[in-house]
Amino acid sequence: MSSKTSRPACRRFIGSLAACVALAATSGCTVPVDAVAGISVTEDGRLLGVMMVCGHRIDGATLYVADDDPDKSVTVGSWTAARPLMPGLTTWTLDSPAPGWTATEPLTPLSPRTTYSLYGWTKDNSWSSRNVSFTLADRNRLTPGSVLYLSISQDGDETAATVPTPEFEAKACRDM
Fold first, then answer.
1. 80-83: which pairs have CB atoms within 8 A and are 24 or more residues apart?
2. Block means of pLDDT (10 residues each) for the chain, length 176 residues?
3. Which residues pair with 148 in a beta bridge?
């Protein structure tokens, strides 16, 4: 596979660093991670994208259903920020137009028993975020003001964690 075809596939379909690293051996895909994606909900239960940018920038986010073959992953929503997200916390609604965001691929209805992943990317593939994977059951357990994200321990163990938003903001970039 040539790098011309692998880089767009990586940006659009590969949310997790592990998947991108696995592709690197065969495709040259190497997008450094410098942000952490999460999800939350609004007071009325609408799904929120959450992005903690740690040091550089993120231009947009994609929600997808992963497949063992990255070329068969299915995008179910994609959003581009009006201006690059700089270091700090950003949230936006995924199911409707959000101020400062353009739905480049509007969110399709989500299905039970399907695992979704949200990740952030840059237009030039210079940076990406760690992804968060979730099901509708995971989303339904969230409360406003809490964030579900992939936490990495000092030992490198990955764990889905749900924490208050201020704790996510304070700790998410420590794992980088």
1. 80/104
2. 38 40 46 96 96 97 86 91 97 91 94 95 97 96 97 89 97 85
3. 39, 162
- Do you know the residue count of the chain? 176
Contact 58, 84 (CB under 8 A): yes
| Helix segments in the chain, DSSP class H | 3-13, 17-27, 136-141, 165-171
Which pTM does this prediction carry? 0.81
Torsion of Cα atoms, 139 then 12 then 90 then 171, to 10°: 70
Token duo for residue 48? 């929120």
CB within 8 A of 54, min separation 6: which ones? 34, 35, 36, 87, 172, 173, 176
